[in-house]
Amino acid sequence: TLHAVPAGDAIDATALKADVLKHLTFTIGRAPEDAALGDWRMALSFAVRDRITESWLASERAAREAGAKRVYYLSLEFLIGRLLEDALVNLGLAEAAEVALRDLGLALGEVVADEPDAALGNGGLGRLAACFMESLATIGCPAIGYGIRYEHGLFRQQFEHGRQVELPELWLEQQHPWEFERPGSRLRVGFGGHVHQVEGRTIWHPAEEVEAEAFDTPIVGWEGQWANPLRLWSARAVYPFDLNRFNHGDFRGAAEPEALARTISRVLYPDDTTDEGKALRLKQEYFFVAASLADILCRFERDFDDLALLPEKVAIQLNDTHPAVAGPELVRLLHDERGVEFSRAVEIARGCLSYTNHTLLPEALESWSEGLFGHLLPRHLEIIERIDAEHYGAHPDRPGSIFEHGEIQMGTLSFVMAHKVNGVSALHTELMKETVFEGLHQVHPDRIVNQTNGVTPRRWLKSCNAALSDLITETIGAGWVRDLSQLERLEPHLGDGAFINRYAAAKRANKAVFSNWLAGDYGLKVDPDAMFDAQIKRIHEYKRQHLNILQTIAAWQAIHDDPQADWTPRLKIFGGKAAPGYHFAKDIIRLINDVAARLNADPVTSKYLQVIFLPNYNVSLAERIIPASDLSEQISTAGKEASGTGNMKFALNGALTIGTLDGANVEIREQVGPENFFLFGMTAAEVTARRAVPDHARRAIEGSAPLARALGALRDGTFSPDEPGRYHGIADNIAGGDHFLVASDFAAYHAAQTDVSRAYGDRETWARMAARNTARSGWFSSDRTIRGYMGEIWGAAPLID
Ligand code: 26Y
């Protein structure tokens, strides 16, 4: 069976097969005849990891020899998903693995799908960090990603009678083959206690200490030329077991220190605003920041002996404010522990640090009460007070203090401690200057810069969409995988009917695969020629899944009025998790599920309109949905979505966007051309103005009969006959304060959806618009984003060409 593939692949396949068998025997300890699917997956993963490790150690050696500047990406979230397929694709071993496994009687697809999806993040911010790790390696920028090795990542979502139920995610229940445990590099992290002055120096005596243990997962770039580690910290007790208590018969007490310490790396904090666990969250933040900075300084001091060189050799990126305590911690390490004069220490720290802001929503901006903060980190509180006083002193026009509203404002602290602060889309960056950071921007006009987000084309096109990737490579060559701007070269082919047919056929093939999977796993039969219309993202009022479902209700009612009309068949796909304490978002989930049940069972309308909410949305599910979608829903209230990155993945894979002028939608529309984008709704400025209009929702409802009627169906129990009042809360919210302007944007959205349906009727024109989206999405590669950070923020250079 080795004859069908090119010679190089055959050699790779032979070697890979031997390595798989070797690892199955000597690493897993299983005979082939006894091996289960998971054993084979593990053996293949180890064989692949060996190859990544070679590249990684060579990369580390090259960076050391070059004395290169290092980038350290600090993030509480890395939403990496599955790693096996990505690694195979980047190493050019996908075909070889297919052949090797076939020889062993296995299907690569099944082996790859057996891997648990590592969900060490909530959403966009965490997935961005994962795309960045892959791009850093592809570009050859020496870097380490630092985070927490959560025992339980984001919860697993199930629906019970349409309601979200959260279950713990058990991704570490099986062995995780990608990581190297580092028992040798354990560090101590302190909390609480008090501060002493000894001979003019300040010493912090923590009351409590835990140990941080490192686990390294190497991340390999395209073509395997470079790899960087993702270093995740796990918490454990300094003295894991209290023998004294044990010998006195207190077995429970003996195990207590370990249990308490381990709590720190137990779970990913959900992005909501409950008060419980606040102290634990702060502990998590300091825990991973302290361990990472100690590690960074240790690496620096191994190679250099002058702390003044630090900003030249070390760039530390703060992924939002979650690692903001890095500012005062670095000052503490330099001033208290190494004797650098205080303002010089601040200056050096600022030379290293930069900060990315991902949100302007007031409820998502982090702040800590001085009481809690000072209790856990007394020395850091003093340092922050001094930083604030000196910043104030230098800027008497008072741009805003770190201490406001009785709390420590982590955004202000991050801004003050960073030499660059970046927004994640052009619009978001401008809004940062006008809103939360207005005062600070005036005194530091060069500090805020824009780096529009991007996505890695290896995972989000090459590996998730083979049909389209192969067509692109046949048409313009394979250079696009490393240099996505080459997608422009598709442009001359867009007038060629044969090319457009092939483009449409690739999408159709993906839709057929998806339909079969839906039928198999969810028992929903759908027509692959229907328009696949997807909204997949965290459930949030500002993202407006309720606008989408309300318009779906209106469309259903319209079909009922005239079932003989020429309706364009659609499948509405939803996916996303709600924060466990976010009750309104959970009501939206239940509503979508109730609407789905009603519509899918409707004999009159279901051939035109079906709805499915796929449970447990995660990275691997996105990889299935995006290549099969025709329409991408990006309908946030303008000014609220900092960037979005799903929007880019859809455009790249040839889904047209229906969207507002928000976040990176603005730039997507500029790139793909306004004629290939379905724009609707108010602008950010109009949103602000409309909120001030009394009764804006009531006026909108009076102006739109379909809206009034759809709201009526929420009120009369159409979707909850057993409990007619179930959706009164949602209806009242939309008809009342309507902070997110669902009512005010409804009519424009409804009209835009009608345009979409009409446009989809002309399949050739639609396919050409979709192909143009692909051809003009090259700018949304995270390689471009990372080059921007390297040039404008980090001052780092690639070590491969
Ligand atoms: C617990 C709390 C402090 C918190 C935890 C997580 C607050 C926020 C978050 C996560 C935020 C997030 O994912 N933001 C998204 O970042 C993406 C990457 O920049 C953007 O594309 C997206 O618009 C933004 O919502």
Q: What is the arithmetic mean of pLDDT?
A: 95
Low-pLDDT regions: none
Query: Quick one: overall form?
Result: globular
Largest sheet strand order:
7-10-11-4-1-12-13-17-18
> Can you give the helix content as a percent range?
40-55%
Span between termini: 37 Å
- The helix count comes to 32
For the biggest sheet, the summary is: 9 strands, mixed
Proportion of residues in extended strands: 15-25%
CATH superfamily of the largest domain: Glycogen Phosphorylase B
CATH topology annotation of the largest domain:
Rossmann fold
Q: Class of the largest domain, according to the CATH hierarchy? A: Alpha Beta
Round the Cα radius of gyration to an integer and report it. 27 Å
Count of structural domains: 3
Structural class: alpha/beta
What small molecules accompany the polymer chains?
ligand 26Y
CATH architecture of the largest domain: 3-Layer(aba) Sandwich
Give me the count of strands: 24
Family: Belongs to the glycogen phosphorylase family.
Organism: Poseidonocella sedimentorum
Pfam families: Phosphorylase
Cofactor: pyridoxal 5'-phosphate
Give an overview in words:
The longest helix is centred in the N-terminal third of the chain and has 30 residues, at about 35-65. The chain has about 800 residues and is an alpha/beta fold. The chain has 32 helices and 24 strands. It has a nine-stranded mixed β-sheet, with helices on both faces. A six-stranded parallel β-sheet has the order 21-20-19-22-23-24, with helices on both faces. The chain is about 50% helix and about 15% strand. Helix 20 packs across helix 31 and helix 27 packs parallel to helix 30 (about 740-760). It binds ligand 26Y. Ligand 26Y binds near residues 123 and 125. Ligand 26Y binds near residues 269, 643 and 645. GO terms for molecular function: glycogen phosphorylase activity; pyridoxal phosphate binding. It comes from Poseidonocella sedimentorum. This is Alpha-1,4 glucan phosphorylase. Keywords: Allosteric enzyme, Carbohydrate metabolism, Glycosyltransferase, Pyridoxal phosphate, Transferase.
